[in-house]
Give the backbone structure.
Amino acid sequence: MSQEIEVLITIRKIIRATDLYSRQLSKKSGLTAPQLLVLQAIQEMGAVAISRLSTHVSLSQATVTSILDRLETRGLVARHRSTMDKRVVHATLTPQGEAMILQAPKPLQDVFSAAFEKLEEWEKSMIVASLQRVASMMNAEHIDASPMLHVGIADEPALSNEGAASNPVASA
């Protein structure tokens, strides 16, 4: 097998692992990875302004607002205006939101981070450089992306893998 094919298969495995995690998260908790990330950020930061929350999770303010709409509808977060500046809206977790965080699987990026931290510095540097080069080779170096491992649109469940058979790498 050529090295090029091995690289493409490895990329496909990473995409599949992310997709499988997204499906598992959705099945177990009914949450998308970005929704869980937002819940965890609110838990970590307390009552937080939407603008600060969006910066913290590396998502646009519009995306975070959309996620909060869904989480609020489910009773997992509450929003209220700041007492100091009525233009500012804060998000807080409800008891149901706290419970949801406790029952949700550990985020895939946390699993990755724990394994990555155990590597030697030279290994970390090599991985970073290699992945940056792959992104460049795929004309993806200018694509804005958050450090969240999730497949699909920022707050939509992962799409099925229909059509994968027409892509030789996708079927790997």
User: Anything to note?
Assistant: The CA atoms of residues 47 and 140 lie 35 Å apart.
